[in-house]
Amino acid sequence: MTRIAIYPGSFDPVTRGHEDIIRRSLAFADKLVVAVAVNLSKQPLFTLEERLDLLREVLQEFEGVEIRWFDGLLAKFAQKNNASLVIRGLRAVSDFEYEFQMALMNRQLFSELETVFLTPAVDLTFLSSSLVREVAELGGDVSDFVHPAVGRALAEKFA
Ligand code: ADP
């Protein structure tokens, strides 16, 4: 049996924190679908195409990873991809309430779907895409937090 997991998110842009969660997921998933959400309520910095391109570049060395996008319900997308696991990262207590709600709702919608929460390396727990965007916009150095390709893309956006 192939165990397929989905890692959904905005990835606006992908950070070392996401990479860490992806690496950890591949220890128990045979295939990981990194799924970029077309989120109607969020105005992203990077377009969907840019986010997908950055993921392709950053994750090219990872085996067993597929990069896709989705809109609509995650539970439906998971079902369509024969996924049995949803991967989410938990950084702090502040992530917990929303994640808990989402996990229960997704299970309600598709009972075979289990959500797995992973914690990143401790030095990445403070990291988020929004913080990276903010620091980059203000001219700070983000090279410790993102792949060089993402660093270049951020520099171009804020040039
Ligand atoms: P969303 O908009 O769905 O929160 P993100 O791209 O911000 O999407 O994050 C996708 C998932 O990755 C979420 O579960 C988030 O908690 C997790 N994540 C993001 N950054 C980190 C990090 N530094 N460490 C662990 N998990 C992270």
Our estimate of the beta-strand percent is: 15-25%
* Morphology: globular
CATH fold call: Rossmann fold
Strands, total number: 5
Plain-language structure description:
This protein is an alpha/beta fold and 159 residues long. It has one domain (4-125): HUPs (Rossmann fold, 3-Layer(aba) Sandwich), CATH 3.40.50.620. Helices cover 40% and strands 18% of the residues. The chain binds adenosine-5'-diphosphate (ADP). Residues 9-11, 15, 17-18, 21, 88-89, 91, 95, 120, 124, 127-129 line the site of adenosine-5'-diphosphate. Adenosine-5'-diphosphate (ADP) binds at residues 9-11, 15, 17-18, 21, 88-89, 91, 95, 120, 124, 127-129.
Briefly say what this structure is.
The chain has 159 residues and is an alpha/beta fold. The protein has helices at 16-25, 48-58, 74-80, 93-109, 129-137, 148-157, and strands at 4-9, 31-37, 65-70, 85-89, 114-118. Bound molecules: adenosine-5'-diphosphate.
Any descriptors?
alpha/beta, Rossmann fold, five-stranded parallel β-sheet, 6 helices, 40% helix
Mind sketching the topology for me?
Blueprint: E1 4-9, H1 16-25, E2 31-37, H2 48-58, E3 65-70, H3 74-80, E4 85-89, H4 93-109, E5 114-118, H5 129-137, H6 148-157
Parallel strand pairs: 1-2, 1-4, 2-3, 4-5
